[in-house]
Amino acid sequence: MSASSSRVRARLLSAIALCACLSVLDGGVAVADESIDVIVDQATVLKLPDRVATLVVGNPLIADVSLQPGSTMVVTGKSYGATNVMAIDRSGNVLINRTIQVDGPTDKLVTVFRGVNRETYSCTPVCQKRITLGDGPDYFKGTLDQSGALTNQVAGAPTDKQ
Q1: CATH number at residue 90
Q2: Same domain membership, residue 99 and residue 124
Q3: Cβ–Cβ under 8 Å, residues 97 and 30
């Protein structure tokens, strides 16, 4: 084998070893380069290393995280954007630091623009009002008020009479 091919082989083996180290962290848990993709108002579940004690989310207005039994993390999208989550053990070591990317829903939605005001409808198969970040303030508040009144009525709470 020539010196040149030995160097190429050594570099290849080094690259493979580096890739293996970067793609796995303690028992097969993914590291920082992989983002967690979630839709606004939806949740996703991820498995964490057993020794995670604390979760810290960079911007809780964008996503919420919770540590559940069995080393399970639930990530809920709250607003559009990106933030990060860190999983920390009892010694203060950062086990995971991943980006959370929160995007808007795209399935079976119809967006109606009335001038500068936006309304969103979920069409599955009949179109119904849907509260979505970015909708016009009157539409958003009206839909939210109707939803709240319905929830109160189902729960048996007294409703405001107007």
Answers
A1: 2.60.40.1080
A2: no
A3: no
